[in-house]
Design a protein that fits this description.
The chain is α/β, with parallel strands linked by helices. It has two domains: 196 residues, NAD(P)-binding Rossmann-like Domain (Rossmann fold), CATH 3.40.50; 105 residues, UDP-galactose 4-epimerase, domain 1 (Alpha-Beta Complex), CATH 3.90.25. 38% of the residues lie in helices and 17% in strands. Bound molecules: nicotinamide-adenine-dinucleotide (NAD) and guanosine-5'-diphosphate-alpha-D-mannose. This is dTDP-4-oxo-6-deoxy-D-allose reductase. It holds the Pfam family Epimerase. It is an enzyme of class 1 (oxidoreductase). It comes from Methylobacterium bullatum.
Length: 329
Amino acid sequence: MKKKILVTGAGGFIGHHLVKSLVSQGHWVRGADIKLPQYEASAAHDFMQVDLRMRDNCAIAVKDMDEVYHLAADMGGIGFISGSHAEITLNNTLISAHMVEAVRYSGLEKFLFSSSACVYPQHLQLSPDVTPLAEDVAWPAQPEEGYGLEKIYMEKLCQYMTEDWKIPTRSVRFHNVYGPLGTYDGGREKAPAAISRKVVLCPDGGEIEVWGDGLQTRSFMYIDDCVEGLCRLMAEDYCAPINLGTDEMITINDLVEIAAEIAGKTITKRHDLTKPQGVRGRNSDNSLIRKVLKWEPTIMIREGLVPTYRWIEEEIAQAHPVRHSVAAE
Ligand code: NAD
Ligand code: GDD
């Protein structure tokens, strides 16, 4: 059945792709964001450029909607989220709390909250060969400072909304999402885009800076899998927190090698141990999503990084030719 759907954070990476997908499925979509999408126009039928930290803006955005995908957040890679805990925590708390209050009185059918692997306890992520993180290890909690704290608090609020107000909610724990149209410079970029940018800007035989010793591990999810997973989870009747990511764990050094291979360049790594590194190892345990959806993300990094790398290469060459001369920092 066709729905009226609000996507908050529709000017951002995942929200923009999600809007395109929902519109192509025939839904009527409203996007809301403090900014317009950076790289191409939104496909949304209606786009509200508003600050969702303000209560009234949330109420207007939610009015008459059937479903909400709540993606708006002050967000970035580890360099960004570890850089200003107070501002990020306050901004995301205001956005989410006001959105929940708006939803409470709206008659909404379903509310999906974009949570994060950053909710998982830091003491379980101290080794590169980390045990994949299953949903039930999030408590007792020791989340990522600030950003992760707001995410785990909001997961609980979603649980209470469902229990006390009978509003069906979803809490989806994304594991590092990448793809074309994702931020690749400016300070908010995550490792796949940052490494791709550095490799694009590096001459064959040159050197790039890699944060940490490169032995830290992550799993990375391609944007198409992320959007498909979100739509499938919204359709399924499952309210508790659930992982959405791949369980293909690689080192950051592997990530650099893959990007260099795609570029056809020989690249030397200059490891900088003073730069932000986050947890030592992180991987998704996909047992629950396999059980709930009979599906899981399948696009491997070697496949997904090709269009991502090519898009960043094209962006740098065409949109910002001057950046060719910027040092690969
Ligand atoms: P993004 O930064 O590209 O998108 C977030 C959007 O929220 C931005 O367009 C931003 O302008 C908007 N926003 C921020 N403050 C706002 C405000 N006050 N009012 C209105 N809009 C505001 O990030 P993304 O990668 O698309 O992430 C989407 C969601 O998924 C976020 O909630 C993020 O925390 C979560 N998440 C993403 C990842 C990932 O790897 N991309 C991982 C874990 C969780
Ligand atoms: N960003 C970035 N830039 N990271 C780099 C770089 C670089 O140039 N070089 C190496 N890295 C390393 C980081 O030190 C870190 O150890 C690893 O790559 C991954 O970094 P990010 O992609 O920035 O973040 P993250 O995986 O620690 O956390 C991200 O994913 C979470 C969900 O899984 C963040 O985006 C969080 O906000 C998100 O919730």
